[in-house]
Amino acid sequence: AVPVLNTVAVKDSLKKANNVVNVNSDENHEAIIFATLGQTLRLKKLVVNMISYWVPCLFRNGVCEKELAKFIFIDVIAGRILPILTTWTNILTSPEGGMISITNLETENGNTAMDIKRAPSIEKEVLSEIWDIVKKTGWLEEEQFMLSAAPLRAAANIHKLL
Question: Whole-prediction pTM value?
Answer without folding.
Answer: 0.69
